[in-house]
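Hello,

Following up on my earlier ticket. Below are the two sequence lines again, exactly as submitted.
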Amino acid sequence: MSKRTMTLNLSPAEMDAIEELCEKKQLTKTALLRQCLRLYQVIEARIDAGEKIFFEDKKKAKSELMLL
Amino acid sequence: MRPSLPVEVFAVAEQKWVAGTLFFGIAEHNLEHYEQKWLPELLKRRRETPKLLKAGHEIAAVEDAHWDWAKKMLREHRAPLGFRSCAVEVEGETEGLMQVELATHRSRANKNLNLAYVDYISIAPWNRPWPGQLKRFKGVGSILLREAIRTSMDEGFRGRIGLHSLPGALTWYRDTLRMKAFGADQDYQGLHYFEFTEEQAERFMDEK
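Thanks for your patience. The regenerated structure is below:
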């Protein structure tokens, strides 16, 4: 698979968030961003198809995730 | 041209390894093979199952005959980054199909970590055990699972994979592959959930 490179301009807070997530998920920055992208694409595709996304708490109460 | 890898499957009647191809992506002709060749045989076997069980045969049920592969591919076309599908072909015939989901599943062994979730994996009916019939090819399921592990490694998940097993495949995942068992999942039709840890995946990749 051919790959292309891009440069990102991020704030220190955004960079910190990436580094924290990389450590938590044991992923490289590239792998983390690829994971973010595929999750984002899956969510968008399901919303576009008319589905709804819910979070469920420990008591099984559901709250809809509103994507505007 | 579809990207592919050469693979080998074991032809049971001939008792020899033969060349096959692992194709990345499930093509239109794979879906046609499923509809026109797999499905009639799966439905025939499903009809014969009660009689064979009554006669004392131990058979794995034909539990995946309702899977709509065309519909599964539609969700992949809508969000291609979230899925990887592949097909094993031998001499132009489709012998195995798999779709792996990469976006939304976490390991149950370590909830912080993502894994490649084998959402659907299926081999042609003639490659499954059935009373009075030799399997045509052995090894198709292993080729597909190895590809799931390779995908997991490529995406930085270090080989971790997870799956829910249909009842008929339970012993293969639990006893033959010795995947880590998490028991029946009441949130998923009571199907048993299994994972390959990083170490197990590595060992499996090293086996022939």
